[in-house]
């Protein structure tokens, strides 16, 4: 079908204002979050209903037009960016942002996939429930994007990632058929759990239009502390001891190395209360009242002989100040300059070995490099960023491949993964080829071939 006829058909389906074709409008939207990939799409279409999504995808299938689903575009590795051929149609989900149903007694809600994570959290809270996924990008990222990247974040330790938080899913398949499995069931033994095919698939198997999500009681009490210990080994021993004492009330366990806190002290006005080789932000949450929970945490911390320093939040504003130290970490590192970033995970017990081994190998290869490691130690997931603080940073970027190889070799030797948050996108395709088990990749690609034989869903990414 000629370009103009295709666009006219789309505009007739969706209304002319919901199809963008001008470069002035489309190009800024097709720039990857970190500015690394610039796509040039055929157009950007914004369907408003599941039915419209199905019609657009069926139209694309009939004319062999490739589709790139786009949520909040925050995944940072080019996953939602089209190529520059002007042959790929981006489908934006922002108009699919409605609540479909909420069942507080069943602790579930069903929402459309274009709802932002923040809106989903707020919606749950209005019904006295918690939707616990929490990320720094929550104001922009969408439920469909969260599912497609299997997003985690600050409370995975207690509540799990999107894989654990989704009970049902609705997906438009590459041929335009709609797979609707939105049941809010916690038990179902009628065969395979098909929703798991689409979670983490980065839009390569179908376009998610809605999901049924797990809700939890809103915690009424929180106890938050920032503590300093002598090493990551001690931080990980504490993690085990805290789980033993507080069970799943331990909600957040974030680790920051001394370099990270020094950068905060240098670049931010925030008050860094102490310096220690390893700083941990930990939070408990529960029913009951703050005072009782805080007293329990104070008592537990008081028994620790190996605590170098610590601050416990005695009010909500103090809690916010402690959280701010963790939340400004990415921005602080941006102020210090570009870095080579990784979102790796290892078993949490292997974090100390990872930090020691990767640090020694990088220092040997790139003497004087600055390693900024911080993140969700409770689930083994660290941001591991490398830069020089001196002007010859470019030399490091020229050797980015060697840096990545040192990091990923160390990660895999310890049973870890090269992507635990931001997905694969375009950025890590060849690393996935190198490290992922070939049989697993073959099975995944077999599924892709079955569902999308003409490779129309988000082509050029890692399943193609
Ligand atoms: C400041 C910052 C902090 C972050 N912190 C975290 C964190 O703590 N934990 C974490 O896990 N991630 C984190 N991220 C990464 C990112 O926010 C997540 O990966 C998020 O889930 C992406 O959602 P999105 O809507 O922006 O998806 P997009 O970036 O738009 O898309 C991501 C992938 O999903 C596909 N996709 C999007 N919507 C759909 C749909 N409806 N159906 C099918 N496929 C779809 C796209 O094609 C693409 O392949 C962070 C990012 C930033 C910028």
Task: Provide tags for this entry.
single chain, 464 residues, alpha+beta, Uridine Diphospho-n-acetylenolpyruvylglucosamine Reductase, domain 2, Uridine Diphospho-n-acetylenolpyruvylglucosamine Reductase, domain 3, 4 domains, 18 helices, globular, binds flavin-adenine dinucleotide
Task: Explain what you see.
It is a single chain. The protein is of the alpha+beta class and 464 residues long. The chain has four domains: 3-92, Uridine Diphospho-n-acetylenolpyruvylglucosamine Reductase, domain 2 (2-Layer Sandwich), CATH 3.30.43.10; 99-217, Uridine Diphospho-n-acetylenolpyruvylglucosamine Reductase, domain 3; 221-330, Alpha-Beta Plaits (2-Layer Sandwich); 338-435, Alpha-Beta Plaits (2-Layer Sandwich). It has 18 helices and 18 strands. The strands form four sheets. The protein has a seven-stranded antiparallel beta sheet with strand order 15-12-14-13-17-18-16, sandwiched between helices. Strands 5-6-10-8-9 form a five-stranded antiparallel beta sheet. It has a four-stranded mixed beta sheet with strand order 1-2-4-3. Helix 10 crosses helix 13 and helix 14 (351-365) runs antiparallel to helix 16 (400-413). The radius of gyration is 23 Å and the shape is globular. The structure holds flavin-adenine dinucleotide.
């Amino acid at each position: 079908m000629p370009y103009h006829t295709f666009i006219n058909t789309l505009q007739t389906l969706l209304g002319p204002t919901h199809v963008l074709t001008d470069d002035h409008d489309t190009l800024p939207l097709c720039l990857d979050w970190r500015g690394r990939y610039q796509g040039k799409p055929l157009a950007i279409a914004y369907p408003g209903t599941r039915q419209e999504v199905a019609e657009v995808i069926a139209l694309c299938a009939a004319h062999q037009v490739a589709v790139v689903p786009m949520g909040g575009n925050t995944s940072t590795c080019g996953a939602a960016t089209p190529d520059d051929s002007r042959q790929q149609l981006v489908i934006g989900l922002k108009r699919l942002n409605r609540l479909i149903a909420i069942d507080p007694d069943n602790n579930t809600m069903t929402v459309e996939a274009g709802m932002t994570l923040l809106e989903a959290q707020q919606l749950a809270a209005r019904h006295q429930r918690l939707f616990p996924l929490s990320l720094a990008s929550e104001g922009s990222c969408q439920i469909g994007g969260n599912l497609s990247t299997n997003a985690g974040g600050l409370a995975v330790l207690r509540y799990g990632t999107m894989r654990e938080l989704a009970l049902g899913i609705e997906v438009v398949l590459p041929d335009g058929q709609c797979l609707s499995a939105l049941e809010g069931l916690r038990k179902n033994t009628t065969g395979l759990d098909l929703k798991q095919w689409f979670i983490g698939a980065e839009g390569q198997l179908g376009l998610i239009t809605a999901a049924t999500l797990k809700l939890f009681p809103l915690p009424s009490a929180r106890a938050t502390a920032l503590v300093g210990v002598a090493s990551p080994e001690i931080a990980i021993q504490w993690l085990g001891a805290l789980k033993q004492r507080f069970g799943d009330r331990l909600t957040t366990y974030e680790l920051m190395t001394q370099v990270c806190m020094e950068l905060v002290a240098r670049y931010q006005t925030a008050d860094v209360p102490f310096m220690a080789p390893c700083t941990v932000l930990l939070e408990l949450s529960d029913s009951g009242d703050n005072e009782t929970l805080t007293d329990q945490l104070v008592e537990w911390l008081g028994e620790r002989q190996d605590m170098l320093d610590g601050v416990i939040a005695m009010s909500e504003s103090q809690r916010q100040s402690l959280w701010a130290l963790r939340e400004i970490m990415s921005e602080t590192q941006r102020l210090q300059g570009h870095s080579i970033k990784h979102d790796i995970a290892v078993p949490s017990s292997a974090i100390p070995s990872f930090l020691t081994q990767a640090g020694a190998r990088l220092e040997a290869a790139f003497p004087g490099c600055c390693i900024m490691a911080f993140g969700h130690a409770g689930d083994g997931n660290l941001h591991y960023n490398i830069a020089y603080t001196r002007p010859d940073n470019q030399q490091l970027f020229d050797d980015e491949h060697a840096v990545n190889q040192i990091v990923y070799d160390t990660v895999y030797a310890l049973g870890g993964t090269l992507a635990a948050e931001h997905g694969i996108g375009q950025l890590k395709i060849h690393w996935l080829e190198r490290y992922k088990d070939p049989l697993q990749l073959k099975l995944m690609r077999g599924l892709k071939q079955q569902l999308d034989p003409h490779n129309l869903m988000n082509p050029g990414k890692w399943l193609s």
